[in-house]
Amino acid sequence: MKTTTSTHVTHYEVQKTRRNRLLEEWRGYQRALVKRSEVEMVDVPSRRTRRGVYMGWDGERPTKNLDASIHEIPPHTTTTVHRHSWDAIMFVESGRGWTEIDGQVIQWRPWDTLHLPAWAWHRHGNDGDASAVFHTWSVEPMLESFGVALLEEGGDSPYSELPAPPRQAEAPEGDDPYARRVRRLAASARGADGARLITRFDDVRGVVTPRGARSLFLVDQSIGYHTAGLSAVMHELAPGLYQSRHRHGGEAWLYAVSGRGHSEIDGVSYPWEAGDLVVVDHWAWHQHFNDDTKQTARLIRVHNFDALYDMIRILLDPIDLFEEPKVLDAPDLSGITWPDHFAGRPEA
Predict the structure, then answer these.
(1) d(CA 68, CA 171)
(2) Potential cystine with 346: which of 82, 110, 142, 326 (Cβ 3.0-4.6 Å)?
(3) pLDDT (tens digit per residue) in 134-174
(4) DSSP 3-state assignment of 220?
């Protein structure tokens, strides 16, 4: 039987209504500050851990790009092993432990930072008498939006018995479009082999930047990492001072490791202390202040610039998605005596 569907509403009107509805929904999810006290720690029996969600679909604050969680491993506990199609950054808050990544066991302690690559089997262990706590930031929401977020469990199987990760095909001979594509993807896959997996806080030192902070890379391609766009930097704000005001087209997530202060985001002040998460939305003017006149404050800034943001910059060119005043309003740090690099770091 032949049927004909007719409508008096154009595709333009349908799409415009749908897109406006989406924006209104997501504006309601936006949060500039999540206090540590708002994050409920929940037992996760299937992984033998406890977990709390700062931002993400798994909690009460959905996101589209990044998510942020806190994990606790009880004493004398090894988690199950799993892998997923997205990569993540892991920052150790307290305790000692280890993480096995594709069979490689890496020991860690407070303020060490690890990269958990996409499709890498990984599990965590705590052999000590006190709980170990770490934070993760991942691009799972972005991959879920694209329909390619996959997670696979391995239970307690040893790495040698687990399925191998997906492998990129080697390029066939020739210079046809297909061969060029496979060759390009194979070269990218080889770049991930042997990439850096941990930044030990013992081995790094901060450098004072023009924006008014002592900063150091935790995860970045410039220091040997191969992520899907994730990067992390630790900023240390001088006592009573601040970082220069700026804005950009991508989100910036800042976790307060130590100290207390406030962030001004589009003219609104948000006070924070250690354990809180500041979420700077895209294109919002923002500036971070240390409210303690005697101690420094440390913030970890997480971006997903090298993938999503750079792609959007190209798509929207010539619109400038990164803008700041020509003259940075950074403080004069010439007379600052910075504390010992390890000041405030918890004992393992």
Answers:
(1) 37
(2) 110
(3) 999 999 998 998 899 999 999 999 999 999 988 888 878 88
(4) coil
20-32 tens-digit pLDDT:
887 888 788 889 9
Residues, the chain? 348
Residue partners of 83: CB distance under 8 A and separation at least 6: 119, 120, 121, 122, 151, 152, 154, 165
For residue 96, give both structure tokens: 């000692």
Nearest to 292 by CA among 339, 346, 252: 339
Global confidence as pTM: 0.91
**Sheet strand arrangement including 132-138:** 42-44, 49-55, 67-73, 132-138, 88-94, 113-116, 198-199
Least confident of 195-199, 203-207, 335-339: 335-339
Give the residue from 79, 80, 95, 78 showing the smallest Cα distance to 129. 95
- The DSSP 8-state label assigned to residue 45 in this structure reads T
Q: Which domains does the chain have, with CATH numbers?
A: 33-153 (2.60.120.10), 198-323 (2.60.120.10)
Question: How many helices (H) and strands (E) would you count in the chain?
Answer: 4, 25
Name the residue among 164, 186, 208, 175 with its Cα closest to residue 336.
208
pLDDT computed for residue 327 by the predictor: 63
Give how far the C-alpha of residue 56 lies from the chain's centroid of Cα atoms, to the nearest Å: 12
